[in-house]
């Protein structure tokens, strides 16, 4: 049975991986390459790398990201013409993420779909919930309003040939209060292509809520940088809650561990830890 | 003899396949040259995108002749990935009816809308072995592989070595003698994928 994807988003600003809060404040994490390497080794299902401020990722950068990545790699960052798409895909990316170009140069979606297939494009929608209860689609790192509602833009992208939708909640970004489930429900009802939700994870249960609605992928950026083995502990938490929806096949799987209320792994009792001191785990050589 | 050649016809993430083989310390060469292809130790044919566009490129570049020479005449090992699985069939009923390689009986169809599931079929899914097979050696039914496709292959039971399920059961892997092909992406399926590529490489070495 198909599993819900646990997707890590690595946000890059001026060559540094960062955390984002409300699309306005950015805190540095470190090297994007190290982030990718660790996330991959922790068994993440897919990796998205987004270069901000419309800075196009260079072929050298994409090459380096791809070398360290054994799962599908999607790249975004000011992609608005077919030559940029070609360069990025030929450098090792599996998919490109189109965001502002959905508004400024939408034909790029159809061009890319024709050349590389729909599965190579993810349309990224930045949804902003205003006081009147409506979801607008913003672009340019959330600075500009488009003439579309978030849902209409997503549908438009689907019609243009996008293979998937990455739905970001600007309001929830960095809030740690969970995804915008109301937004997600609207999208799942309206669209025929797979949807990935992003923005607001602070606890593994937030992902559980979205998985229950039938989303294709749950994504988080900041969240996976908060702790070691974050991907694995989240997957363990989720497999405890819901059967047959999550892929957890890393050697470390936290079988038999408990969770704190805050969603983090509880440490083992001291005598168990003592007995682990001399436990040899040989590395599997494939 | 030559190396394992990763066939480049302009549609497919050849770099990812080579990256995966490099991690396994397996030598490979990316090539679109028919002479190199027809003299390879083995060939891997990745592919994403449209069937008819792929066939157009493959025929135009002289690659179909080269692959026929290598795989059908010389019977060297072959691994098709994703579109590479669909291309070896007889034909596809995609937007434009197109003939494939014709190496195995079978046709390519769109994933039906009646399943009510989003299309493309994208994500990690189980692959269930239907008969024991060298390509899946050491990989059990609990293993997952990454899929990303809107079309699937329908072919005779005798070639099917593994299935997967997305609304309906569909073909995940086939084998006909020296010809292997998989619907999923082993080069993007972390350890399961690396194990499969290692199995293929071992097959090539012991062939």
Calculate Rg of chain A over CA atoms: 19 Å
- Distance between the first and last residues' Cα of chain A: 26 Å
| Biggest pleated sheet of chain B | 8 strands, mixed
Number of strands of chain B: 14
Q: Kindly, what is the distance between the CA atoms of the first and last residues of chain B, rounded to a whole number of angstroms?
A: 12 Å
Radius of gyration of chain B: 16 Å
Pick out the low-confidence regions of chain A: none
Low-pLDDT residue intervals, each spanning 5 or more residues of chain B: none
Shape assignment of chain B: globular
Shape of chain A: globular
Quick structural overview:
The complex is a heterodimer of chains A (286) and B (207). Chain A has 286 residues and is an alpha/beta fold.
Can you walk me through this structure?
The complex is a heterodimer of chains A (286) and B (207). Chain A has 286 residues and is α/β, with parallel strands linked by helices. Helices cover 32% and strands 24% of the residues of chain A. Chain A has helices at residues 32-41, 59-67, 82-90, 101-104, 107-116, 150-160, 181-190, 204-212, 230-241, 270-276; strands at 5-13, 16-21, 25-30, 46-51, 73-76, 95-98, 121-129, 135-139, 144-149, 164-169, 195-198, 217-220. The mean pLDDT of chain A is 92. The relative contact order of chain B is 0.17. The longest helix of chain B has 16 residues, at 190-205. Chain B has helices at 14-23, 34-38, 51-60, 63-73, 83-87, 190-205; strands at 4-7, 28-31, 42-45, 78-81, 91-92, 98-99, 107-110, 121-126, 128-129, 144-149, 151-154, 160-166, 168-176, 179-182. The interface between A and B is large, with 39 and 40 residues.
């Amino acid at each position: 049975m198909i599993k819900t994807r646990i997707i890590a988003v690595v946000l890059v600003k001026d060559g540094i991986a960062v955390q984002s809060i409300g699309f306005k404040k950015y805190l540095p994490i470190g090297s994007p390459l190290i982030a990718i390497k660790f996330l991959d080794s922790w068994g993440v299902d897919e990796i998205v790398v987004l270069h901000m401020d419309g800075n196009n990722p260079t072929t050298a950068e994409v090459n380096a990201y791809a070398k360290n990545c054994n799962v599908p790699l999607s790249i975004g960052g000011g992609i608005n013409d077919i030559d940029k798409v070609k360069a990025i895909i030929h450098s090792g990316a599996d998919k490109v993420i189109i965001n502002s170009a959905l508004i400024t140069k939408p034909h790029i979606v159809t061009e890319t779909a024709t050349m590389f297939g729909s599965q190579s494009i993810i349309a990224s929608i930045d949804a902003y919930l205003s006081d009147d209860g409506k979801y607008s689609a913003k672009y340019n790192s959330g600075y500009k309003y488009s003439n579309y509602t978030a849902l209409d833009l997503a549908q438009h992208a689907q019609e243009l040939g996008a293979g998937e939708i990455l739905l970001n909640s600007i309001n929830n970004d960095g809030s740690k209060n969970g995804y915008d489930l109301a937004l997600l429900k609207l999208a799942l009802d309206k669209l025929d292509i797979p949807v990935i939700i992003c923005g607001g994870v602070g606890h593994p249960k937030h992902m559980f809520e979205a998985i229950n609605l039938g989303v294709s992928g749950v994504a988080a950026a900041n969240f996976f940088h908060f702790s070691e083995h974050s991907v694995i502990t989240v997957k363990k938490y989720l497999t405890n809650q819901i059967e047959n929806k999550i892929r957890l096949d890393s050697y470390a799987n936290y079988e038999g561990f408990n969770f704190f209320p805050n969603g983090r792994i509880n440490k083992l009792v001291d005598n168990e830890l003592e007995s682990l001191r001399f436990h040899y785990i040989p590395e599997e050589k494939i | 003899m030559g190396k394992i050649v990763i066939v480049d016809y302009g549609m497919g993430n050849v770099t990812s396949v080579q990256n995966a083989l490099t991690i396994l310390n397996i030598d490979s060469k990316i090539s679109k040259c028919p002479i190199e292809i027809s003299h390879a130790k083995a060939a891997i044919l990745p592919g994403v995108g449209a069937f008819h566009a792929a066939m157009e490129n493959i025929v135009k570049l002289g690659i179909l002749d080269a692959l026929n020479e290598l795989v059908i005449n010389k019977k060297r090992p072959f691994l098709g990935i994703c579109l590479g699985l669909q291309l070896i069939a007889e034909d596809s009923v995609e937007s434009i009816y197109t003939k494939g390689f014709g190496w195995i009986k079978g046709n390519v169809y769109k994933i039906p809308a009646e399943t009510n599931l989003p299309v493309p079929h994208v994500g990690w899914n189980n692959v269930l072995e239907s008969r024991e097979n060298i390509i899946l050696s050491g990989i059990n039914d609990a293993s997952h592989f990454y899929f990303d496709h809107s079309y699937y292959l329908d072919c005779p039971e005798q070639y099917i070595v593994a299935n997967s399920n997305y609304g309906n059961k569909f073909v995940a892997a086939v084998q006909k003698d020296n010809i292997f092909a998989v619907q999923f992406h082993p080069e993007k399926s972390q350890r399961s994928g690396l194990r499969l590529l290692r199995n293929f490489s071992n097959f090539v070495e012991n062939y």
